[in-house]
Amino acid sequence: MSTLTLLAVLLSLQNSALAAQAETASLYHQCGGANWEGATQCISGAYCQSQNPYYYQCVATSWGYYTNTSISSTATLPSSSTTVSPTSSVVPTGLVSPLYGQCGGQNWNGATSCAQGSYCKYMNNYYFQCVPEADGNPAEISTFSENGEIIVTAIEAPTWAQCGGHGYYGPTKCQVGTSCRELNAWYYQCIPDDHTDASTTTLDPTSSFVSTTSLSTLPASSETTIVTPTSIAAEQVPLWGQCGGIGYTGSTICEQGSCVYLNDWYYQCLISDQGTASTTSATTSITSFNVSSSSETTVIAPTSISTEDVPLWGQCGGIGYTGSTTCSQGSCVYLNDWYFQCLPEEETTSSTSSSSSSSSSSTSSASSTSSTSSTSSTSSTSSSTSSSSIPTSTSSSGDFETIPNGFSGTGRTTRYWDCCKPSCSWPGKSNSVTGPVRSCGVSGNVLDANAQSGCIGGEAFTCDEQQPWSINDDLAYGFAAASLAGGSEDSSCCTCMKLTFTSSSIAGKTMIVQLTNTGADLGSNHFDIALPGGGLGIFTEGCSSQFGSGYQWGNQYGGISSLAECDGLPSELQPGCQFRFGWFENADNPSVEFEQVSCPPEITSITGCARTDE
Q1: Which domains are delineated in the chain?
Q2: Which of 40, 456, 525, 592 has the fewest CB atoms within 10 Å, measured from its CB?
């Protein structure tokens, strides 16, 4: 080989190495998912792990030990999407998850074995965790993919836990002495064999998994989307019996204990020390429809607010979670959309950077349709209806930091609440966020990011948890639409601003708001704070489309004018309305000084959106 040829070969190898290095994703950066066109290999010391079908992330190998065998993700995606599966050391087989690490769950493609001295424990359908063997009897749990469908295998589901039903992907084999019984088409439960009051159909106990029908096959009737029980039967329900849920027509009165929400299709009579956190919480009166008739009924349903602190390593958030979000030690850290965990402070730095990419669809079409706001004392562009609870004043430690070279200045505020899909809920609005802001259907379920806004005939509205709450007498969290001088949707969507009020009775108070919306008619450095009952603005039909008629929304601009009028709003929105006349002191468009800060996790856990460039 000539010297010239040898030099050419060496140069080619060097270029290949440089190209490979350039296409390597850094630790905690994205490395795959639907429509992903970037790097699919991770730097040394990390591997590419699927967080959901739309977001794969480079995570440190310290979260697990692995072999060099590679597999690709086979999670089912919408037909319009293209999945980019990482190409090497993607989801390595032979992984051993460390103590308190994730080891299974729907869409989980990581380690399913636990380090010595721990075992994989079923926490919920989306999160299995390695816990010390001293915490219970080990049960081998694993997940794998077959023909594009995630399969979950578990030795046993706990007594009284769900074990089947439409859309269910968890374990279907119950503990010894219990059987998996059908309570309705959407909920099967592990019930003690000596308990005869529940429904009669029993599943085959040898089956470890039942592939069940997707919820999309449910009837399209709007009445079936309402979840709360009705009191149409006089007889009492025995302990552990069903007392509510979609399609349920029996009694909602329990002989013992309380009727506790478990999921949209199943409420259960539980005694206080065996229910979830919601059994010890306050109740709220909400309006629902009986699925067997068109009559409107006011019922009492448990809220999901708990004031008890969560112990270290315990769950503190996630889709469907109804417990406390306050950790007794450490911080509440996002692990995936269904599981937030209390972790020691030294472990939160790496975990929080994975922030939620959530349920957004990553199809490349970024619809330009969005809600705009109005001038005067209110504009428009957000809305509300989610089954998640409004955080309490004890749910945050006020963790946020000023962003160097971020937005800052002086500005003005207005207020609004129009029940429209936020503009930052559309995909493609920003290239520097983990995913679009969540939007919800009328029953509170999180919708695909491409769902049309309910203000123009669609089904998507602002999730009702996107309303403000107080942290203490001087600090509150919330959400707002905004127009920033020199800013755009790309730079402002999902940023958090520290608003220090400089006028009115709340001068000196501070509010951290995440920008979830924009408005073409907002002025420069104008913040339109999302306050239920603050005025519908130009989109006068959004809230009636979401909640129906019969509610009093006040003036089109400015909204209601007294605390008593909050009772005329849907119960889901009353906490945010009461906030206006409490902590906010009914201040009328106060001026502010503002600066960009990092978003507290309590806020990003609600919207599912966080900035990736801060």
Answers
A1: 23-147 (no CATH), 369-388+400-549+556-607 (2.40.40.10)
A2: 456
